[in-house]
Amino acid sequence: MKFALCLATLLASAPVLSAPAPASAGKSTTTSSAFFTTSEQRSRGTVTVGGKRITYQTVAGTLVVHGKEWQDTDAAEAAAKPDKKDAAAPKPEASMFYTAYFRDGVPAANRPITFLFNGGPGSSTVWLHMGAFGPVRVETVDGRHTPAAPYGMVANDQSLLDASDLVFIDAPGTGFSRIAGEDKEKAFFGVDQDIDAFAQFITQFLSKYQRWNSPKYIFGESYGTMRGAGLALALQNRDVDLNGVMLLADILNWDLLPDDPQVNPGNDLPYVMTLPTYAATAWYHQRIPRPAGGLRNFLSEVETFATTDYLQALMKGNDLPDEERQRIAARLSAYTAIPVPYLLKTNLRIQYGAFQKELLSDSAQTVGTLDTRFIGATLDPLSEVATYDPQSSAISSAYVSAYNDYVRRSLGYQPSIEFKSGIPIYESWDYRHQPPGAGKPLIALPNVLPDLALAMKQSPNLKVMANGGYFDISTPYFAGVFEMRHMPIPPELRGNIEYHFYESGHMVYAHLPSLKALHDNVADFIRRTSAR
């Protein structure tokens, strides 16, 4: 793979990006008070995808949405509610930033439109925008740290503009999106609050740009898959049926997330879900013999072991006989390259942070969380688990730096605020979710499988596409398979779900061959499901 091209070279080359439209063509917000109004900055560009030149219009702008509790409540009604502190207090609102790309020369009446977002929670959408489907892509080094600036940007020949118009959305508080008003964090930083904000945004956008009759799609990555599954139902409740829901690195049931066995004993499914990824990682780094038949055949064998002998052994808990314990430990070691004594000490349960640190411990290296193909120096040799993610360290600066330059210089959008690639709200997020049929939000880890299932039942033509990377520990690909297998839908709807997996990690598109495969699969999905 070639190294990143100089950013200055890109900006000097006219064919890649057209110059932005004059300031009079749009208004770019410059003050914090003015930011909580709708705004837009227009520009134009070209990109070549599949050998065909595409001209497009870009709109970088903001739409304003309100907190879930306040949407249809005026000051008098708020004053009458005992749970409202002050009727005169400013209502919580979010100025949500987006970058939309509209292909020229294609009637909007039947042109698909796709709303895309990353997750976190607390992440902007810079990753999907600059790494996957936008018309411009940042170049990073695959598998190791990308050198410091200047970073390279290229016209993205895998942009999804060949199949759909695109709207990249930053969640409230992230990117150039901001929140304000009384109890603003409570109003937007939670599972249901977040879904509602995006539902408001999408319906506003459809009206503003007259796209109500377009085939509609959502594409969510990571926590964005939870948002996406919830949105399928939330938009239906606003009389918007989607043509398709596309999930990348899905995690719809948080009970499947890996955890410390000392903190949450008895929850054994996460260890079953992550084992195939551990095996894929050991295979990739050549810590185990590579059997004939390739990675996919090998993982099928591991998946069978994980869901039979390994699961049964874990379910026996302390009653597992020593002889069987030894046998299972030996099989685990053969698949993961983790020594048998270590596996016995951990009671056959491999915490993912520990696996990251242990696999290459003999060379004092740590493998990635989001993408275990990436490696980096172990920061603390005495720690039990990895203390950072080598992939995040390897590519974050490239994405954020290139994006800041692109949006401010090439798109002409220059707000007087900082771009926030992510905000630290993971631990303070309100994870309560009210699934359909429940009278109130549940005090439990969120699970939006019921939401997506109900949306599919109510709209039986709705199609779902699940995508995952074999080398992703944070949201293991096999957990996505498990989730879809347990979707409470009738047999006749199960064919509406399709799966695609790639020899990459969480950010599938960080591996160029996988980016091409992802583009081709997604473009084909949109074309098939939007055709009449």
From TrEMBL:
<dbReference type="InterPro" id="IPR029058">
    <property type="entry name" value="AB_hydrolase_fold"/>
</dbReference>
<feature type="signal peptide">
    <location>
        <begin position="1"/>
        <end position="18"/>
    </location>
</feature>
<keyword id="KW-0732">Signal</keyword>
<protein>
    <submittedName>
        <fullName>Peptidase S10</fullName>
    </submittedName>
</protein>
<dbReference type="GO" id="GO:0004185">
    <property type="term" value="F:serine-type carboxypeptidase activity"/>
</dbReference>
<dbReference type="GO" id="GO:0006508">
    <property type="term" value="P:proteolysis"/>
</dbReference>
<dbReference type="Pfam" id="PF00450">
    <property type="entry name" value="Peptidase_S10"/>
</dbReference>
<dbReference type="InterPro" id="IPR001563">
    <property type="entry name" value="Peptidase_S10"/>
</dbReference>
